[in-house]
Write a structure and sequence with these properties.
Layout lengths: L1 H11 L4 H15 L3 H19 L1 H7 L19 E4 L4 E5 L4 E4 L1 H17 L3 E4 L12
Parallel strand pairs: 1-4
Antiparallel strand pairs: 2-3
Length: 138
């Protein structure tokens, strides 16, 4: 339940959803008793939506919302991707036949694999090796 709510909120925070929600909240307040606040929220929401769609504003902001590793100049001197594997582990992970890394660790691992695929750099994973059971090979 918490993970679903977290994913839903992460989808609503970046533009254009957040200014759109602000404008919708303004419309709802205009129809209610707080018309001045509603009109202000509607105007601010629509102005933010317009700003987010302008190319000059995106250039002005730069790549402030870009993910690390998504720009080519950020990895020009990198020699490898290092993924920190600490953070605990799950004792019972039936899908893996025993213990597995925690969900936070899985997030780091998948993002590290994503960056490694985009940059073609080798990957070094550290930590958690002594706590996990060895993989059984058939």
């Amino acid at each position: 339940m918490f993970v679903t709510l977290k994913m839903f909120l992460h989808a609503l925070l970046p533009p254009p959803a957040s200014p759109l929600l602000l404008a919708v909240a303004g419309l709802l307040l205009i129809w209610g008793k707080r018309r001045r606040l509603g009109a202000t929220l509607l105007a601010v929401g629509l102005a933010c939506l317009w700003l987010c769609s302008c190319r000059w504003f995106q250039t002005l902001c730069g790549d402030c919302g870009a993910l690390p590793g998504s720009r080519s100049e950020s990895t020009t001197h990198a020699q490898a991707i290092v993924i920190l594997g600490g953070g605990g582990y799950r004792y019972a992970a039936p899908e893996y036949g025993g213990p597995a890394p925690s969900l936070r660790c899985w997030n780091r691992l998948t993002y590290g694999a994503f960056v490694a695929r985009r940059t073609s750099l080798p990957v070094l994973v550290s930590g958690m090796a002594t706590k996990l059971a060895p993989c059984a090979h058939p």
